[in-house]
Amino acid sequence: MYANGQALKETQTLDELLQAGSASGLWHSQTTADSTILWATFAHSPNDGSTEINVRQSVFYPSKPHIDYIHVKGFHLSQAATPCPPPQPNRSDCWVYTGARDG
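Above: the chain's sequence. Below: its structure in token form.
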């Protein structure tokens, strides 16, 4: 979740968010089979700026496992939520980013 282009920090529990105070820049979600509920704290009214939510797993991803040594050049990646665990079996490896900007 982003407020005016700045990432908010996700909390592990709703209590953690509620105890931190209203201007803490935190968010939390709870998902059921039917819905997802989001809570967030802002330093400003979210109606007075830009508030964004990422719902995709990644910006781009290989169509199948073991597509390795991908070279990404010249992209501007912004406000991208992507899972980045350590190398694991059945996952791609050795992606190189050059001339790319993030943020």
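The first strand starts at residue 2 and ends at 3.
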